[in-house]
Amino acid sequence: MRPMSAWRIMHQDPTVVEGRSLDPALVRRVGRFARPYRWQLVGFVAMIAAGAGLALVPPLLFRSIIDSAIPNKDTAQLAVLVGVVIGAALVTAGASLLERHWSSRIGEGLIYDLRCALFDHVQRMPMQFFTRSQTGAIVSRLNNDVIGAQRALTGTLGTVVSNVITLAFTIVAMVALDWRITIVAILLLPLFLIPSKRVGRRLQEMTRDSMQLNAEMNAQMTERFGVAGALLVKLFGDHDRETDEFATKVAAVRDIGIRSAVYQRWFMVMLVLVGAIGTAVVYYLGGMQVIEGNVSIGTLVALAALVTRIYDPLTSLTNARVDVMSAFVSFERVFEVLDSPSPIADTPAAITLTDPVGALRFEHVDFAYPGASEGTIRSLETGGPETDPEHGPPSVLHDIDLDIRPGTTVALVGPSGAGKSTIASLIPRLYDVVDGSVSLDGHDVRDLTQASLRRAIGVVSQDPHLFHATVGENLRYARPDATDADLRAACAAARVLDVVEGLPDGLDTMVGERGYRLSGGEKQRLAIARLLLKDPAVVVLDEATSSLDTENEAAVQAALADALEGRTAVIIAHRLSTVVDADLIVVLEHGRIVQRGTHSELLAQGGLYADLYRVLVGGGDPDSRLVLG
Ligand SMILES: Nc1ncnc2c1ncn2[C@@H]1O[C@H](COP(=O)(O)OP(=O)(O)OP(=O)(O)O)[C@@H](O)[C@H]1O
Ligand SMILES: [Mg+2]
Question: Cβ(174)–Cβ(309) under 8 Å?
Answer without folding.
Answer: no
